[in-house]
Amino acid sequence: MSVQVLHVTGARPNFPKAAPVVRALREHGVDQRLVHTGQHYDEQMCDVFFRQLGLPEPDVNLGVGSGSHAVQTGTIMAGLESLLSQEQPRLVVVYGDVNSTLAAALVAAKLRIPFAHVEAGLRSFNRAMPEEINRLVTDRLAEILFATSPDAVAHLASEGVAADRIHFVGNPMIDTLMVNLDRLDAVRIRAALRLPEQYLVATLHRPSNVDDAGDAAELAKAVHASADLLPVVMPVHPRGRASLAASGMFDHPRVRVVDPMGYVEFLSLVRGAAAVITDSGGVQEETTVLGIPCLTLRPDTERPVTITHGTNQLVDRAGLAVSVRAALDRKQRAPRTPPLWDGRAGERIADVIADFL
Ligand code: UD1
Ligand code: UDP
Question: Which residues, 6+ apart, have CB-to-CB distance to 214 below 8 Å?
Fold first, then answer.
């Protein structure tokens, strides 16, 4: 008999989204397989998440590794095509907006295997972002679309997706945060890294910030001005390591560079931070729920509820330090958790999938 559900994950942000869905489907007794494309492969970008989040070992690791967009997407497609042809799952589940998501969507659609998209409908309306292309194509082809926020539902509706295919279920990334909340020990991580009580966390990896030497130099200036206010801990994503080093980013005495951190360690650090500087999608959401001020170094966000409900604020590089100062001075209002970000998105997703099966 063919497998019922086949999940495709590939990159760091996929893992915290997949974990609650796999767990909830297990409770439904659904027969499932997990495929890891190998888009991310370093211990600290991948294995540590499987261990910490209780994800099962992948049944298959395609081991595709890094490459240009076309090479990476094409290699994942080739690997998935033969696998899905063989396995013929009843449903494929894809997560987020990375190249692994797009590749799996294209392959499933052409093999006429229905697929569900977790985190459908997010739009930055900025096609210079590779993720925006991935989102648009994936949503166009998906059979079942799971939305994390009302704006995402509205985008899908305005693009002509039938209402009965859209399910507003909340945010599985937040399920993972809530399940792990008791493990997030800010005091311990602060002691381990010998940090003062007040510090900033920065995580930056978007091509628009780190790929170009000029952008990286401006980013370094902005982070240095913030480090003049408070020490900055920066777990460095491998994408930007070389260009940020060349920009002088790591030369400021109060910029503390560390390797990418495990989920528990990173969110422990965030939980104790005075503010977070980021361009990450997931971190905008997590800081919203943790109530930590978040300065997002981007001109737009596909996650507007983190601004309307949460602690997020879009800033440009020139204005970063002023915004950090203001965030530190401001008495933070208690964040309003966005609707259905209640830790039960995985269960809702599993209910819909169980009905479909
Ligand atoms: C990818 C996603 C991005 C997501 C990010 C999360 C796409 C198009 N982009 O960007 O949406 O926000 O993951 O982290 O899918 N590298 C390593 N070790 C690894 C993985 C990557 O050294 O384990 C280095 C390689 O030099 C690689 C570079 O990072 O070329 C970029 O990796 P890639 O997966 O292409 O894109 P990300 O920038 O990680
Ligand atoms: N994260 C982590 N360690 C780090 C940086 C980020 O565990 O050093 C987590 C973060 O808390 C969130 C996820 O990785 O759960 C987000 O991934 P990333 O920022 O790489 O991707 P994006 O969300 O921007 O697509």
Answer: none
Are 289 and 352 in a shared domain?
Answer: no
In a domain? residue 308: yes
Helix axes 345-356, 14-27, angle to 10 degrees: 60
Q: The domain containing residue 45 runs over which residues?
A: 5-171+341-356
Residue 335 lies in a domain: no
According to DSSP, residue 357 is labeled -
11/49 same-domain check = yes
CATH number of the domain encompassing residue 198: 3.40.50.2000
Domain count, the chain: 2
Let me know if residue 334 belongs to a domain. no
* Residue ranges lining ligand 1, Cβ < 6 Å: 11-13, 39-42, 45, 66, 72, 97-99, 130-131, 205, 237-239
DSSP SS3 for 137: helix
Q: Which residue lies with its CA nearest to atom 2 of ligand 1?
A: 98
pLDDT band at 71 (very low <50, low <70, confident <90, very high): very high
343 sits in the region (left: phi over 0; alpha: psi -120 to 50; else beta) called: left
Tens of pLDDT, residues 121-179 = 999 999 999 999 999 999 999 999 999 999 999 999 999 999 999 999 999 999 999 99
Looking at residue 85, its amino acid is S
Burial code (b: 16+ CB inside 10 Å, e: under 16) for 145-154 equals bbbbbebbbe
Q: Name the closest ligand to CA 48.
A: 2
- Alpha-carbon gap, residue 51 to 247, rounded angstroms: 34
Phi-psi region of 331 (alpha: psi -120 to 50; beta: other; left: phi over 0): beta
What's at 194, amino acid-wise?
R
